[in-house]
Specification:
The protein is of the alpha+beta class. The protein has two domains: 142 residues, Jelly Rolls, CATH 2.60.120; 68 residues, Arc Repressor Mutant, subunit A (Orthogonal Bundle), CATH 1.10.10.10. It is 43% helix and 24% strand. It is built from eight helices and eight strands. The longest helix has 27 residues. It is elongated and about 65 Å long.
Length: 221
């Protein structure tokens, strides 16, 4: 069944796809939806297709043997998933898992069609590799933060990156974001509260001193 390509405007680089490539995508790509809480894929699953996110957001995370989670990145509208691309290019299984945070709608290009497009379509191949490179760079930044920055500096950066002075997150949710234990985050937040840099309520953090948090966030650089 031929599918409309109206969604392609979300990915401007793909509007220049060759006619033959557009025909393949319109014929074989499918649009899927999933609600909040749905599992997109689990670690060890086979990758069956290339993902182009139309709307919504999902969290990609790695789980340790002890059950501790660290968030690797998120996939939002107009984006692709670097781990999915890695698995397709390397014919490997998923090394992480993903869960839907906001209802999603995706275009899925089947594995066989993805590989055909990578061979036959210079436009598609360039799009895939450029996005892949950019996302890998983001993962390297995460690795740098985990390996070389102290947890208090990473926590300060995370708080500032939320954008607002009022942050509605539990200590467990923050721990999952930073790949550590809830008790560790609670101790770190308590120290910051004692310094007067923030205040805490039930599931709410209020930033009081952004400038001091910024100094802490930059202390490892």
């Amino acid at each position: 069944m031929m599918q409309s390509l109206g969604w392609i405007s979300l990915f401007p680089e793909l509007e220049a796809l060759e006619d033959s490539a557009k025909k393949l995508v319109s014929q074989y790509a499918r649009i899927v939806e999933a609600p909040v809480g749905a599992i997109g894929y689990r670690e060890g699953d086979h990758c069956g297709g290339y993902v182009l996110r139309l709307k919504g957001r999902s969290r990609v995370y790695k789980m340790s043997a002890s059950g501790r989670e660290i968030v690797l990145y998120r996939v939002g509208a107009g984006e692709t998933c670097v781990i999915t691309t890695t698995c397709l290019l390397g014919n490997s299984q998923y090394p992480a898992s993903t869960v839907v945070e906001d209802d999603i709608q995706d275009v899925i290009i089947p594995e066989a069609i993805f590989h055909k497009l990578m061979i036959d379509s210079p436009v598609f191949r360039q799009y895939v590799m450029q996005n892949y490179g950019a996302l890998i760079s983001d993962l390297i930044v995460l690795l740098d933060e985990v390996a070389f920055q102290t947890l208090d500096a990473r926590l300060a950066k995370w708080l500032l990156d939320m954008g607002n002075n009022t942050i509605q997150r539990t200590h467990q949710q923050i721990a999952d974001e930073l790949g550590t234990a809830r008790e560790v985050i609670s101790r770190q937040l308590k120290r910051l509260e004692q310094k007067g840099w923030l205040t805490m309520g039930r599931g709410v953090i209020e930033i009081q001193q952004r400038g001091e948090l910024l100094k802490l966030a930059n202390s490892n650089q």
